[in-house]
Structure formats: C-alpha cells, structure tokens
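A brief tutorial aside. Many learners find it easier to grasp structure tokens once they have seen a single protein encoded end to end. The record that follows does exactly this for Response regulator transcription factor. Read the sequence first, then the structure, and try to relate runs of similar tokens to stretches of the chain.
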Amino acid sequence: MPTPPTGRILVVDDETDLAQLVAGYLRKAGLEVAVRHDGTEAVAAVRDFTPDVLVLDLGLPGIDGIEVCRQVRTFSDCHVLMLTARDDEVDKIVGLSVGADDYVTKPFSPRELVARVQAMLRRARPGDAEPTAGSQHSQQALVIGELVVEEDSRQVHLAGEPVALTRIEFDLLLCLAARPQLVLSRRQLVEMVWDTHWTGDEHLVDVHIGRIRKKLGDEATNPRFIHTIRGIGYRMGTGR
C-alpha cells in the first residue's frame, strides 16, 4: 500500500464547527493543519504558514474567498480547493478563473475532501526536480514553435520570456505538449491531472485551458498552441 502523502493544509471557513471537523479529518490523515475564519487572516496565514493546500470557503467575512484567492495567487502557488454552498455555476467559474484548482460544494463528505487534498499533494511541485546542468533547457524540454515546456524544472517560456502558470495549468499544458497532435478528452485530462477517482464537473478543464490560453496570448478562434476539438476535448498545435 502506498504511503499517504504529507503536507501542510490551511483550512479557512467562518463556520467554526465545520472548519474544526474538516481539520480533524485532515489531521487523522497525518497532515499538519492550521485553521482561520476570515479572509484577511487567510491571506496572512498563507504567507506565514506556507501551506501546500489551501481549503478555502467562498463566503467569508472581511474579504471573500474569491478575493483571497486572487491575492494569494500573487505570491503563492499552493493548491487551492474552494468550498462553496452555492449552486450557481458562475461562482465556481469565477473562483477557478482567479486561480483555484478545484471546488467542493457543501454539503460534502469530509472523507471525500481528504481524498481530494491527498490527490493534490501527490502532484509534482515546482522545484521537485532540478534542471539538467550545462543546458539552457532541461533534456525533458518540449518545444512547440516559440513555446518551451520544461518538464524537469516545471518552467514555461514563450519567445524566451517566462510564463507564470499555476500547478494545474502547468500539468494540463504538459499533458497536451507531451502528446502533440493527440486529441485528449476532458475526462482523460481530468484523470491525468486531477485524479482517476475525481468526481465533479469536467468542464472545469475548460476554465483552466482558458487561463492558459490567455497567458500564452493564444486565441481560441485562431490558436497556435491549444486547439479545441468540438465535442471531444483538446490537442496541442504546432505553434504556428
């Protein structure tokens, strides 16, 4: 049986009992946990506690979860798992668009949340692998026109300029870049990037792809890099 992943988790929810319940389940899973109850405290705690995963409620006093995520993304690449009591799809899309990686809608199973967090912790982190010495790009670099995706160092460059991607964005781009001209469905991308047992709306892939395109200056209607295959999914282009 594989060893469960370890890491630091910050739980932010203004419902004190729920926050403590979630924290208890995470601690039983062998994780280090801190708890906060409002948005302003959350941003400060991300700086001080440097969590691997931020479990973030959308509706918070002070500044809400959307603004917390927006601010956190200016200085941290921690995974962000949103908690929301709202069924409005717009709220979820907005949360993902400002840098959240995934979401869980209340009410939820604490065991499911722990499983989602553990899946996030299993993903590669920037800096886990060192780039190959003596080379501008690692031996694992993938080149698509002016786009260079460095698998080892988890860096992306476009026309020689660095492109800042979140972990989820990098993993999605790597999946496509490593399989040029192969069409990958949303389900395949979910299983490759999130988890084979992940359940939820597969269209969150579309939101993250949209963010990648924006950062690459890639137009969906005339893409150089990521092509939409209607009714199926996505494939990597030639960069031209």
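Self-check: The chain has eight helices and twelve strands. If you spotted this yourself, you are ready for the next section.
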